[in-house]
Amino acid sequence: MISKRTHDQSATIPSKKKTAHGYLQVWLVKAYATDILPLKLFANTITDALRQILNCFEKPICNAIMEGISNKIRRHTRLACGYRDVDFLHLRIYVLHGSKDILNGT
Fold first, then answer.
1. Structural domain count, the chain
2. Do 9 and 44 share a structural domain?
3. Which residue range forms the structural domain that includes residue 41?
4. What is the spatial distance between Cα 5 and Cα 10, in angstroms, rounded to a whole number?
5. Residue 39 above 90 pLDDT?
6. Which of 43, 67, 91, 92 sits most deeply, having the most CB atoms within 10 A of its CB?
7. SS3 of the chain
C-alpha cells in the first residue's frame, strides 16, 4: 500500500513540473514581448534559475528550521556581551536547543 502511494505521488510530480514549465514559458514569452525593462530583467533572472525553480516540484525542501536555529544563535550571540567566555556561550546555545547529551558528556 505504501509503495503504491509513493508510486502514485511520484507519477504526478513530472506532470506538475511539466505544467509549471509550460506556464513559465508562456509567461516568459509575454514578459520578453513587453517594453518594460524591469520586467525583462526579472524574466532573465527567472530564465537563469528556471532549472532550480522547477526542481521544487520534484523535491520540495525547505530550510526554515535551519534559518530559525541560526536566528536563535545570532540573537544569543548579540546578548552574549556579559558572558565570561566563548565556552559559556557555547553552553548557552546547547541549553537553548536542548542538547542534554553534550551537557552530560555522553
1. 2
2. yes
3. 2-55
4. 9
5. yes
6. 43
7. CHHHHHHHHHHHHHHHHHHHHHHHHHHHHHHHHCCCHHHHHHHHHHHHCHHHHHHCCCCCCCCHHHHHHHHHHHHHHHHHHHCCCHHHHHHHHHHHCCCHHHHHCC
